[in-house]
Structure prediction request, 175 residues.
Amino acid sequence: MNALLQRWPALVGLTSAVLVLIFTADRETTAISVNVAVLCYLSAAAFGRPWLAWAAIPLFSVVVTVAKIAGFAWWAAFAVVGVVLIVAGLAIGVPRKPLWAQVGAAVVYGGLAVVALFLPVVVGGVLAGLALAAHAGWDWVAYRRNEVVPRSLAEACMFLDVPLGVGVVVLSLTA
Prediction:
């Protein structure tokens, strides 16, 4: 039981992936998941505070909800948040290398996930799923280096990204 409790981040990630696959697995949910992940990393890098990555999860869920209620595209709201985070990081003088690395990851992973929204449903679902599953590689780097975000967050993300990403690819191809 103690070993299981030590793997709580993996359990959180895997449980989240399973719940999403059961109830809301689609390309938009997957694209949102990718973009929440990259913004969590960017938040931590922009302020030089790893714990902010965990705190940012509910915050970015609120951003999605408010954007949708206000009639804005959630991804446009996330782009604005990303720019604000970059400016804040530069203004407070955080180390540039981690900040720019997270900006690059946000553009690549997040950008691919947003592009998936504008493709046909099957192709978009596959691309969003692959972007999320590929983000697990970024999680692995953060986990191994123990940099930018807490290892617990990187572990939870790996166990969310791979099963959910692969699951969405499979569901998209079999729809």
Observations:
- Residues 112 and 139 are 17 Å apart (CA to CA).
- The chain has a mean pLDDT of 97.
